[in-house]
Amino acid sequence: MDEKEWLGEHNQLGIDIWKHKYCNNDEDFEHWVNRVSGHDAAVAALIKEQKFLFGGRILANRGLEYEGKKITLSNCYVMTPPEDNIESIFDRAGKLARTYSYGGGCGIDISGLSPKGARINNAAKETSGSISFMTLYSLVTELIGQNGRRGALMISIDCSHPDVLDFIRLKTDLNKVTKANISIRLSDEFMEAVQKKDQFRLRYTRKETGQVVESMVRAADVFRLIAETNWDYAEPGALFWDRIRQWNLLAHTKEFAFAGVNPCAEEPLPAGGSCLLGSINLANFVNSPFSAEAVFDFPEFKRCVTVAVRAMNDVLDEGLPLHPLQEQRDSVKAWRQIGLGIMGLGDMLIKMGITYGSEQAVAFCHDLGFAMADTAIAASAELAGSQGSFAMCHVDEIMSTPYFKANTTEQTAALVRGNGLRNSQLLTIAPTGTLSTMLGISGGIEPIYANFYERKTESLHGTDVYYKVYTPIVERYMKTYHITDDSNLPECFVTALTLDYRERVEMQAAWQQHIDASISSTVNVANGFTVEDTEQLYLLAYEKGCKGLTIFRDGCKRAGILTTHTDKKMVPIAGMGLERGEIVSIDDNVIGKKRKLVTGCGSLHCIAFFDPETGALLETYLSKGSTGGCNNFMIGLSRMISISSRAGIDIYTIVDQLNSTGNCPSYSVRRSTRGDTSKGACCPMAVGNALLDMYNEVQEELRQSSAAAGGAPPLKKMPAKPKADKKVTAESIFCPQCGEPLVFEGGCNTCKNCGWSKCN
């Protein structure tokens, strides 16, 4: 077997993802499978059958430690929360950097830091507050590279912290803490106060001085603020913290405490904790798919769970010496968490003719979830019998937890009573964005995002031609039943934006009953979803027993920061209509604009000239200031921008290319220390943003001039100036790598065209 046979000869996207993300150098498929499976025939068979895949770090890194590479096999870590002193705060920053350098994402909780205004015994007299140090941790995340990408970070805070209101509002400024997800720990006490519309106390006691900082707030007002910011910014996420603490195998273990969650929130972990991931593809356990005889193969599914638990324990042992920090090695050795999850749920239900979110689907997920939990616990107990239980295993405490009682048969309970458990945590549901895209299935717990996506091709004359690319499960169904119009698909083909949020929450709640860790969850909602709807969604999730979630509203302001695209159909293009290779000439009759840009190295000057009739970009000149960068580089970049614009490339495409150039460390440092840099993350980005700003200014001037003269602006050539509150649909959120639409699901931005993904 080779990768084409494994993924499908026509699945070029999946093949590219495998080659670029998981394949080591030029190893062939069989060598890769043997390396990743640890030469375990049972595991290799499951991988080849696409029934089980390890998480991305394992697929990319397993076995490469013997080549001298500094790697980890764990996807995620939770840092020991910083103590309330400057040494501890910066110590955690250093440990974040070290963990990122090995490829791990991190979570960190700042609830232990003093609130703004608390008295301190140094030159400052009072602290700038816990929120101020989020910038430090975000900057570290931005600076440390991970094989062409940046680290992922989750910052959380408790709902009783006096800085919580500033925390909620923080990311309404789209330029602050841009490299971290943020979430609030919501306690039962707070949620009950919300429901009763009672007052809630914010309180912090500073140990060093004994000072108490406290105030009273109306819980419902705070909850409303959370709903409002989620409605328009998709953050902060909600962590129902008491549910997290109480619904797991360690709820009665006194020595154990959760310290935070990983970047996509599916993994609550102790201080220094780590978890490696793996997912079972539910779609490949359906026999006779798309027919009345379709049935789920429970025996084979249970066998797969057993093999996967064993395989993940093998990887855990191999990875113990590879963790970046000693505290991580100690935590993993003591608690032995693994995170076995699922993907392909949406595809599985379609193959069985069951509508996602229906009563039938919820009931079936309960059956499936129980089987998975009971089997995983039994498999861990069998391993404990032959290899020993995890170091902190107290059998009576484990068996007395509500989670254990609800998810085990008498036979499994007897195994645990006799052997203990090899693992303290077993199940999770991660986003699986890249894995599921590679296989062409739905990710994590999500329904299929859309039945089809629009793709664009260009004719020889430069005309945009759009065509439909059907989601693989939709394409297979349509071919099976000779359907040519997707409007004729049966009702089981619900998608993320057409699904009622109540049904989406019911599905998550069903799975959460059987998952001892948590679930990475993004509820995608339509643009018309209201703030009141958002409040009801979060209340419903709490009442149904979910551990956390966030929403992403189509067209929210957060969508606007993912792209610089607007409607390209109205963009004036200087070289439009010319043959390939022809370049428009210019004369002195132009509109000139100038901007001074502040960058990481100093300053540079950007001059741009525009067509006086259409406002199209014609010419760009860049020169460095007295302390700027390389002048020859600036000249070369300006020449390429100029010739591109006069050859018929529109300004948005040019800016897209400039925005794909990455982050400059010196730029990041200056922005953090001085805060005076121009918009962007490096010189080319700053130039692109300046060009777009000048372009929009010219368009507005031409519009006003035309209106003053009593005429209408030439709309076929000029777009209206984009407005800050312009609705941005899911189709206008674009991938920085290939320019195609992104989707936001499971806490990650994912490109279905090239496989690019980012947990943001």
Structural summary, described in words:
This protein has 760 residues and is an alpha/beta fold. Among the domains are: 76-246, no CATH class; 570-727. Helices cover 39% and strands 17% of the residues. The protein contains 27 helices and 25 strands. Strands 1, 2, 3, 4, 5, 8, 11, 14, 15, 18 and 19 form an 11-stranded mixed beta sheet that branches. Strands 20-21-22 form a 3-stranded antiparallel beta sheet. It has a 3-stranded antiparallel beta sheet with strand order 23-24-25, with helices on one face. Helix 12 crosses helix 15 and helix 25 (651-658) runs antiparallel to helix 27 (683-708). It starts with a helix and ends with a strand. 49% of the residues are buried. Mean pLDDT is 88; it is low at 458-462, 560-569 and 712-732.
Mean of residue pLDDT values: 88
Number of DSSP strands?
25
Give Rg in angstroms.
27 Å
Q: What's the shape? A: globular
Major β-sheet, in short?
11 strands, mixed
Secondary-structure class: alpha/beta
Unreliable segments (pLDDT under 50, ≥5 consecutive)?
Answer: 458-462, 560-569, 712-732
* Helix fraction by DSSP (H/I, runs of at least 4): 25-40%
What proportion of the residues form beta strands (DSSP E)? Answer: 15-25%
Separation of the first and last Cα atoms: 36 Å
- How many helical elements? 27
Summarize the structure.
With 760 residues, the protein is an alpha/beta fold. Helices cover 39% and strands 17% of the residues.
What are the main properties of this structure?
TSCPD_dom; alpha/beta; EC 1.17.4.1; eleven-stranded mixed sheet; nucleotide-binding; single chain; 760 residues; cobalt; disulfide bond; 17% strand
